[in-house]
Amino acid sequence: MWRTVAEPTRTPTTRRSRSRPAVRAGLLGNFVDQFDIFLPIIALAPVAALVLGPESAAAQTGLIFVATLFGRPLGAAIFGSIADRHGRTRTTKIAIAGIAITTLMIAFIPGQDIGGVWTLWAFVALRFVGGTFLGGEYTAAIPLAMEWTTPRRRGMLSGGIMAMSPLANATIAALTLLLVQTLGVQAYAAWGWRLPFIVGAIMAFGLLWYYSAHVMDAPATASAPRRAHPVRDILAGPYRRQLWQVFVLMTGLWLFTQMAIPVLTGMLRDAPQVGPSEVAFIMLIATLVSAVSMYTAGVVSQRIGRRRFFVIFGAVALIAAPLAFAWALGSHGAGLITAVTLVQVVTVSAYGPVGAYLAERFSTGVRSSGYGVGYSLSIVVPALYPFWLPGLQAGIGPVLAVCAVLAVASALLVAGAALGPEPARDAPLA
């Protein structure tokens, strides 16, 4: 069994010097993770019909995104168990290597003009495998960062880690916008779309080097007793109540994500008043603002409590999120940018405390498994939106259907938080 051996004595300065690499790696790791997750949605948005084929480009990119998200629960279960039993740092390195390789392979998929229908299925297959490794990365890396962090800084670190998601989205949007405007739509469709995937692979290889050179498991965690079957313990054993409570809360958050990012992006792309390059610019502005609000959410949760934060946020979002979405689809110009930004702020900002909250809800022996499975298993129903959302939209209207889903997401967030206790946010992780 692999483990890091702690020294008999350590000064506070020594602990700080060893905790900083793990904290930095947690921040950078979630940036790389989120960059990879949303690459197809944003980078392919301007040219999906040319790269994947003219048949329902929005549905095709949605299918690729779903494949990524479906791989994540599998990866969380596999790598969470490995991380709890054999160490979080080693597990993280394996997962990052897989992310780097699969992302690089996507950059060499032939376009639809050469590969035909197999182009789409090559994307789907590689994104599923990549999603499995992505599920392993945050399952090990974020609990590791939290275990190295002092209790009073957990909310701030959680907000910073979760803010990497909108920052990653903003980076993809900026890179896509730059490439489309520099190369032109035809050149970008022919080969330019591959560059963001190459960038993603390079970042993952760089992160792998950083973990190998600088990061180790927290001493208290490395010396803690190991559970023989951590995944079984959280699914049907003594930690099942924590898991299913987290599942309800995270399902609400994932519904927010699907409606506020891929669904909104697709609907904007199809809107007559919005050009292809404008979508990337609008999402760039909105995600930059939501990064700040997500970080702020983590800090606020440290002051008022994670449970109280989620309940208050969900109650506000119940009204604000549907109204903001309806405003966004009926606006143009500066009003459109403002409305899309508001959608991001009143939905995905709630992720700010999640890194700390999930780490606090599970003890050391099952922390990676509980964090990863709770975070990822809740993706399943929201990720199937390409299959259930169109029917709902056909029944009650495209915008009203999304507004209804946002209301349900708000209610699930409130219910999930209310079902659980307030974690001991000012105490060391158990």
Can you give a write-up of this model?
The chain is mainly α. The protein has one domain: Growth Hormone, Chain: A (Up-down Bundle). Helices cover 80% and strands 0% of the residues. It is built from 20 helices and no strands. It has helices at 12-43, 48-52, 57-86, 88-106, 112-115, 117-148, 154-183, 185-192, 194-214, 219-222, 230-235, 240-270, 276-304, 306-329, 333-345, 354-361, 367-377, 380-383, 385-396, 398-419. Helix 1 packs antiparallel against helix 3 (57-86), helix 3 (57-86) runs antiparallel to helix 17 and helix 7 (154-183) packs antiparallel against helix 13.
Portion in helices: over 70%
Helix and strand element order: HHHHHHHHHHHHHHHHHHHH
Q: Write the CATH homologous superfamily.
A: MFS general substrate transporter like domains
The CATH class assignment is Mainly Alpha
Task: Report the structural category.
Answer: mainly alpha
What fraction of the residues are assigned to beta strands by DSSP? Answer: under 5%
The assembly state of the depicted protein chains is single chain
| CATH architect. name | Up-down Bundle
Which topology does CATH recognise? Growth Hormone, Chain: A
Q: What profile does the largest beta sheet have?
A: none
Distance between the termini: 22 Å
Mean pLDDT: 86
What is the C-alpha radius of gyration, as a whole number of Å? 21 Å
Uncertain runs are 1-10
Shape assignment = globular
State the domain count: 1
| Continuous helix count | 20
Pfam families: MFS_1 (PF07690)
Protein name: MFS transporter
Transmembrane segments: 25-51, 63-82, 94-111, 117-136, 157-179, 191-211, 246-267, 279-297, 309-330, 336-359, 371-389, 395-419
InterPro entries: MFS, MFS_dom, MFS_trans_sf
